[in-house]
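Quick one, probably user error.
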């Protein structure tokens, strides 16, 4: 049987670093814009500027972290990327520099957009509340091709996504941050001196030790 048609043999196992860059406030912002500018969203040939802003912010994230990471896919308000074991530029202090650079680029694009913003309605004015958080985990995954799209599957992929819902801001306040599992810190030799240790718990998985790095 052709391996591409065999539902059992498809997929390859790998190991590496999983990173999710998530725009905080994204859903509420776009919903507010849709409510305030319903006719513009539904009927106008040109979409509202808020849509272009979000696209620009997502572009900036990708440009800042790919490479050394490889884009897996966009997940609404998040960019999901992966790096293989031993990939250059993904270890130690270089990783923290990459995250800080990506966040700085995000803020630069957001500040530029706010300077050019023409609508002063309450919904559009909330664009300045958008911010960026990162979640990183290290572990095993299965690379599965579905159609022409690669999908990453496995327990460690699930853990990375679960960590998006965390208690970091209960500890560091309403600030942008990077949350790194202890697994990724150990695997990549990431310095954790400036980070806050925490433990996250989720149903049906053991407690997950993490460190949180405030970015501003």
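Nope, works fine. Designed sequence:
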């Amino acid at each position: 049987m052709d391996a591409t048609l065999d539902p059992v043999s498809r997929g390859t196992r790998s190991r590496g670093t999983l990173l999710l860059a998530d725009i905080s406030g994204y859903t509420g912002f776009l919903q507010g814009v849709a409510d305030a500018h319903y006719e513009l969203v539904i009927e106008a040939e040109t979409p509202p500027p808020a849509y272009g802003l979000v696209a620009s912010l997502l572009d900036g994230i990708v440009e800042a972290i790919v490479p050394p990471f490889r884009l897996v896919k966009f997940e609404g308000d998040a960019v999901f990327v992966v790096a293989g074991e031993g990939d250059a530029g993904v270890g130690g202090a270089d990783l923290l520099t990459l995250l800080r650079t990506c966040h700085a680029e995000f803020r630069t694009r957001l500040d530029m957009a706010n300077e050019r913003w023409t609508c002063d309605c309450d919904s559009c004015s909330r664009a300045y509340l958008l911010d960026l958080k990162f979640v990183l985990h290290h572990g095993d995954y299965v690379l599965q091709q579905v159609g022409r799209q690669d999908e990453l599957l496995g327990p460690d992929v699930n853990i990375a996504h679960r960590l998006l819902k965390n208690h970091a801001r209960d500890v560091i306040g309403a600030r942008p941050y990077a949350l790194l599992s202890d697994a990724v810190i150990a695997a990549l030799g990431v310095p954790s001196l400036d980070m806050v240790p925490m433990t996250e718990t989720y149903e049906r998985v053991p407690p997950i030790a993490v460190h949180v790095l405030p970015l501003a």
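The two ends are 55 Å apart (CA to CA).
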